[in-house]
Fold this protein.
Amino acid sequence: MTMTSSQTVAQPLTHSEILAIREDFPILSTTVNAHPLVYLDSGATSQKPRAVLDAERTFLETENSAVHRGAHTLAALATETFENARATVARFINAADDEIVWTSNATEGLNLIAYAFSNASVGRGGIEAKRFALSPGDEILVTEMEHHANLIPWQELAARTGATLRFVPIDDGGSLRLESLDELVNARTRIVAFTHVSNVLGVINPVELLVARARAVGALVVLDACQSAPHFALDVAALDVDFAVFSGHKMLGPTGVGVLYGRSELLNAMPPFLTGGSMITTVTMESAEFLPAPQRFEAGTQRVSQAIGLAAAIDYLDAVGMDRIAAHESALGAKLADGLRAIPGVRVLGPGPGEARVGLASFDVAGIHSHDVGQFLDDRGIAVRVGHHCTQPLHRRLGVVSTTRASAYLYTTDDEVDELLAGVADVSAFFGAARRGARDERPAERPEMRGTL
Amino acid sequence: MTSAELNGLYQQMILDHARTPYGFGLTEGAISRSHQVNPTCGDEITLELHLEPGTDVVSSVRWEGHGCAISQASASLFADLVDGLPMPEISTRIDSFREVMRSRGTIDPDERLLGDAVVLAGASRYVARVKCAMLAWVAAEHAISLAKAA
Ligand SMILES: Cc1ncc(COP(=O)(O)O)c(C=O)c1O
């Protein structure tokens, strides 16, 4: 458990508070298939409050211009608002302003780190960057529950450098098996990359154990905070991670903006990933010198209105209170998982009864494919995610091809969870029992309409 | 409580075929095989063609895989439709099916060409489900091209 004690004592949001919050999200009062929308797909992307939409619009209507370029009044205003947004993000996760790098999303943040290491491995970045260089014999460690975004960039980095990719296995309940951690994180380990919260299992990983072991061998820690930053207070200094990434669109912010946190000492020693305008000091026809972080990693025209929208999202979350959001979602997560488990034929992945989980649950309905479950629920206006949720190895490990995932956020009500549970309870009756077996006889009822040859 | 649209998508014949599929299970002696994956959901199918010796007539389609009711029923209906047809005729029917599935419900399926598989036409209104319905047919198209090359 990495939630702080203040989160366990915080009061969940009251029903009237949630109703007031919902008023701020225009999309939540729409209908889908003639039913009021029940949006239970915030784990994929969250809805946006008016404050975020307004912040983007106001910026575009009053201050829009290129940041860090040009000397006119609007350029100065825009640069200030843009940098204030960075400061808002920094405060939100307890980092320094220059430790916040804008990215497009978490995926780009993870690729940025992997490619910076890759560039260091071929000698870019000079002597300072040598500490990031990988070669055969080095090891990168991930876990079996990673989103493809925190797996494939490391597979590719390993393939380019000759390093070995290893993983921490999980048990049947979806917890990391840490009994052989001392062997998995060893003198050859250079990077330990793992997710804070699984987007499928809802489990919260023990960051401090992994960090302590990584520190003991001098490995760098990369935290995928995509499913934690939106849902409970994230303190990168207290967690003592080297890098963390998350996406704005999962935390009430716009698409197209994400965050890479890196300890400033590391960022300033790393070679860049993307190169071009806005990240240089001196350029000749032969070579270039680079700005310090964060600009070193922000080549090209930035996503300015999106960053400003993300800062407005963070202000919104802060005003509600991350500890109260976490308390609300953990209660919803328990209700979801317990309710689903009580439905015959439903298997819930991840933490068992009474064990901590965030506000999401992925489940399998015996004999019924997740696409069909999702289609059935959609008919009632209930939006859930179906498929492998970008975690094919995790699904394979747990013996399922695909699952249905319901994920809540601060605007999700108890009633919505009840509607989902009622919907899932009706799924089996609609589709009937599981497959009975193949038939070798041609279906008897088919009329003779085979057409002529 | 379910809507007419949902009942139109999941017609009883589709649910029956999904539960008790025809042609399911691979056997020895196929002339060609195709494996197809739907990357959005991970659904898979392996489909094989068996020919009547010395002809281009498909004696039987055999397949294995896992997926949603639409994709499973579609494979079953396909196998039922084409067993005993020559490959060029099967290609014609695949083309006809594709045209219907891409039409977003605007083209009525030709029952003389598609037989019971006309029940799948409802899926053409659900953009996200067209791939499910097409999976077996795409596999068959690929298997036919491999058989011709063999
Ligand atoms: C745990 C986790 N990591 C990474 C990602 C990738 O986020 P994005 O697609 O916004 O880059 C997601 C979101 O799908 C996620 O849930």
Summary: Chain A has two domains: 15-48+321-431, 53-318.
